[in-house]
Amino acid sequence: MYTIDKHVIEVDSLESKIKGRSLLKGRGKVSIVTILSIFLILSFTVIVNAEASESIKVLIREKKDESFLEQEKEKSYLVQNSKDWMLMLVNEKSPLPDGYLPKLKKLENGLEFDERAIDYLNEMLADARLQGLSPVVCSAFRTVEYQQKLFDNQIKKQMGNGLSAHQAVVEAKKVVAYPGTSEHNLGLAVDIVSLGYQFLDEKQAATPEIEWLVEHCSEYGFILRYPKDKTEITGVIYEPWHFRYVGKQAAKEIMENGLCLEEYLIRY
Ligand SMILES: [Zn+2]
């Protein structure tokens, strides 16, 4: 019995050892499965995250592409329009191409204007005179060199008022366009004043000549180029005396809708 018992005990202990091992083995299996699962979940999470961040990147790229395309569209529209000589945009951000020189013709007072538009200007001035008005063209085409002279004189004047060279340039740009960025260099702009009031200030707007011109200029293809409420867009002070030829169709749209040329070129 003892032997048997011992044997039983031995068998028992053997069994328990085996069980224990298999238990251990089982635990080992559980741990491996757990680790593998965690690993798989982590890998999946990493892949999903990577995919998510990739799609975010794609979205950002697409967004960038969209705004880039939008900008390009706008730019090409401006370039496209600038090929149309009547609508050529000239401002501080869009200087004239180097050496731009239109074919010019002389006005009766000797000043020059683009020969393609001079007839419309003469017709407008003649019709104003028929109304008993006395418009005076005091500035038309200017060469870039002459514009440079005007600009330099303005700097000297500002420095004479005690400004530093840098400040003088900043102030001068507010009064005189930087050479190559003036519409007068383009040959399609004129400054017109009343014979009775020959000053380039805001009071010019109240003269009968300017009142008539503002009302009728679009019929001849001209616009008031620098309106009072558009200085933020044009970058130029209110100039009730400065008229620009853009052609009858654009002039009508611009004057009837109270736009400036920059706005018109983006809209149409
Ligand atoms: Zn002008």
UniProtKB/TrEMBL annotation:
Transmembrane helix as UniProt keyword: yes
GO MF terms, alphabetically ordered: peptidase activity
Transmembrane regions: 30-50
One GO term (biological process): proteolysis
Domain D-alanyl-D-alanine carboxypeptidase-like core: 113-248
Keywords, comma-separated and alphabetical: Membrane, Transmembrane, Transmembrane helix
Gene3D superfamilies in alphabetical order: 3.30.1380.10
Protein name from the UniProt record: M15 family metallopeptidase
Keyword Transmembrane: yes
Entry-linked Pfam families: VanY
